[in-house]
Amino acid sequence: MSSLRASSSNLVWVAALVVSLMALCEAQLSPNYYDKTCPQVLPTVKKATGTAIAREHRMAASLLRLHFHDCFVQGCDASILLNDAAGIVSEKNARQNFRSARGYEVIDGIKSAVEKVCPGVVSCADILAIVARDSSVYVGGPSWKVKLGRRDSTTASKDLAEQNLPIAFDDLDTLTSVFARQGLSLKDMVVLSGSHTIGLAQCATFRGRIYNETNIDAGFARMRQRRCPPTAGNGDTNLAPLDLVTPGSFDNNYYKNLLRKKGLLHSDQLLFNGGSTDATVAAYSKDQAAFFADFAAAMVKMGDISPLTGSAGEVRKVCSVVN
Ligand code: HEM
Ligand SMILES: *[C@@H]1O[C@H](CO)[C@@H](O)[C@H](O)[C@H]1NC(C)=O
């Protein structure tokens, strides 16, 4: 009798342990998350991402940035993809995203391709994370194993986007706290900013720097002033490459530029301006392999910001609207 009671209480214990282990597994992202439920997800996303980048090379940069702008607002939950709707104030209209973040329709297209092979299984948040990695690889950057199992939010926050996304004019303390709020270190910030080895920026984001700053190469400033007039409202949307040397390929020229005072954004040159981050910038400028390895690790860390897992959120059918 007593041994029967002991074994049944053991059973309760084992059951409780199994349940809590399952909960633990669910709360963790894993690269194998879709192995059983959607084994085609990685090749499907890779192919569609490649098609989009072949059509427009810049798209690699735009897609990489979307994952970043997603993760810093409510975590990596695809909140950035939701359009204005009843109860939803779209992050697309936050000032850091408005007429700046791009590639939304590419993500919608990739999602439809994935829905064709595994309907209702793969989240938009995971698609953003996979696409960011594939974009890096397509333009010569590092690869990494993407952890998966994020679910999609049923909410978005324009206010939080405006609070949490960095601005090119921010000072180093502000930028540091913006990253710290996401659990990211100063070193993570330096290495993730290396994304500015690809892509373009609009005149309005670097005008103050090329006309009024002193820690800038004079010839570089003059060159950028040619297509970015000094008066606000003139040529605001004219584009310039963030990396003047190899704007289309992912490499460590971004850091080499900073050593020569040829960072395009105020926030870029801040990282090499006589402060505590100079040493990291100098190290990456000399060692592309170290940059690539640290970048890959930091992207995984960024992709881990507050995911919705288990039964939280949902798997959206269409990335721009809740189910
Ligand atoms: C350190 C703080 C950062 C600031 C202040 C910043 C700011 C900016 C600004 C102002 C632009 C140009 C947008 C435009 O003119 O429309 C830009 C572009 C870009 N940013 Fe950042 N950024 C930061 C960090 C990052 C991080 C961490 C990533 C990725 C992990 C990233 C990826 C990109 C990419 C790829 C582009 C080019 C996008 C395109 O061509 O469409 N940035 N960023
Ligand atoms: C440069 O600084 C001056 C003085 O603060 C300001 O009036 C001017 O608008 C600035 N110019 C640009 C292009 O930012």
TrEMBL record:
<keyword id="KW-0873">Pyrrolidone carboxylic acid</keyword>
<keyword id="KW-0376">Hydrogen peroxide</keyword>
<feature type="binding site">
    <location>
        <position position="166"/>
    </location>
    <ligand>
        <name>substrate</name>
    </ligand>
</feature>
<protein>
    <recommendedName>
        <fullName>Peroxidase</fullName>
        <ecNumber>1.11.1.7</ecNumber>
    </recommendedName>
</protein>
<comment type="function">
    <text>Removal of H(2)O(2), oxidation of toxic reductants, biosynthesis and degradation of lignin, suberization, auxin catabolism, response to environmental stresses such as wounding, pathogen attack and oxidative stress.</text>
</comment>
<keyword id="KW-0479">Metal-binding</keyword>
<comment type="similarity">
    <text>Belongs to the peroxidase family. Classical plant (class III) peroxidase subfamily.</text>
</comment>
<feature type="active site" description="Proton acceptor">
    <location>
        <position position="69"/>
    </location>
</feature>
<feature type="binding site">
    <location>
        <position position="73"/>
    </location>
    <ligand>
        <name>Ca(2+) 1</name>
    </ligand>
</feature>
<dbReference type="GO" id="GO:0004601">
    <property type="term" value="F:peroxidase activity"/>
</dbReference>
<feature type="binding site">
    <location>
        <position position="91"/>
    </location>
    <ligand>
        <name>Ca(2+) 1</name>
    </ligand>
</feature>
<dbReference type="InterPro" id="IPR000823">
    <property type="entry name" value="Peroxidase_pln"/>
</dbReference>
<dbReference type="GO" id="GO:0006979">
    <property type="term" value="P:response to oxidative stress"/>
</dbReference>
<keyword id="KW-0106">Calcium</keyword>
<comment type="similarity">
    <text>Belongs to the peroxidase family. Ascorbate peroxidase subfamily.</text>
</comment>
<keyword id="KW-0560">Oxidoreductase</keyword>
<feature type="disulfide bond">
    <location>
        <begin position="71"/>
        <end position="76"/>
    </location>
</feature>
<feature type="binding site">
    <location>
        <position position="77"/>
    </location>
    <ligand>
        <name>Ca(2+) 1</name>
    </ligand>
</feature>
<dbReference type="GO" id="GO:0042744">
    <property type="term" value="P:hydrogen peroxide catabolic process"/>
</dbReference>
<dbReference type="InterPro" id="IPR019794">
    <property type="entry name" value="Peroxidases_AS"/>
</dbReference>
<dbReference type="GO" id="GO:0140825">
    <property type="term" value="F:lactoperoxidase activity"/>
</dbReference>
<dbReference type="InterPro" id="IPR033905">
    <property type="entry name" value="Secretory_peroxidase"/>
</dbReference>
<keyword id="KW-0325">Glycoprotein</keyword>
<keyword id="KW-0732">Signal</keyword>
<feature type="binding site" description="axial binding residue">
    <location>
        <position position="196"/>
    </location>
    <ligand>
        <name>heme b</name>
    </ligand>
</feature>
<feature type="binding site">
    <location>
        <position position="243"/>
    </location>
    <ligand>
        <name>Ca(2+) 2</name>
    </ligand>
</feature>
<dbReference type="GO" id="GO:0020037">
    <property type="term" value="F:heme binding"/>
</dbReference>
<feature type="binding site">
    <location>
        <position position="79"/>
    </location>
    <ligand>
        <name>Ca(2+) 1</name>
    </ligand>
</feature>
<keyword id="KW-0964">Secreted</keyword>
<dbReference type="InterPro" id="IPR002016">
    <property type="entry name" value="Haem_peroxidase"/>
</dbReference>
<dbReference type="GO" id="GO:0009505">
    <property type="term" value="C:plant-type cell wall"/>
</dbReference>
<feature type="binding site">
    <location>
        <position position="246"/>
    </location>
    <ligand>
        <name>Ca(2+) 2</name>
    </ligand>
</feature>
<dbReference type="GO" id="GO:0046872">
    <property type="term" value="F:metal ion binding"/>
</dbReference>
<feature type="binding site">
    <location>
        <position position="75"/>
    </location>
    <ligand>
        <name>Ca(2+) 1</name>
    </ligand>
</feature>
<dbReference type="GO" id="GO:0005576">
    <property type="term" value="C:extracellular region"/>
</dbReference>
<feature type="domain" description="Plant heme peroxidase family profile">
    <location>
        <begin position="28"/>
        <end position="323"/>
    </location>
</feature>
<keyword id="KW-0349">Heme</keyword>
<feature type="binding site">
    <location>
        <position position="197"/>
    </location>
    <ligand>
        <name>Ca(2+) 2</name>
    </ligand>
</feature>
<feature type="binding site">
    <location>
        <position position="251"/>
    </location>
    <ligand>
        <name>Ca(2+) 2</name>
    </ligand>
</feature>
<dbReference type="Pfam" id="PF00141">
    <property type="entry name" value="peroxidase"/>
</dbReference>
<feature type="site" description="Transition state stabilizer">
    <location>
        <position position="65"/>
    </location>
</feature>
<keyword id="KW-0575">Peroxidase</keyword>
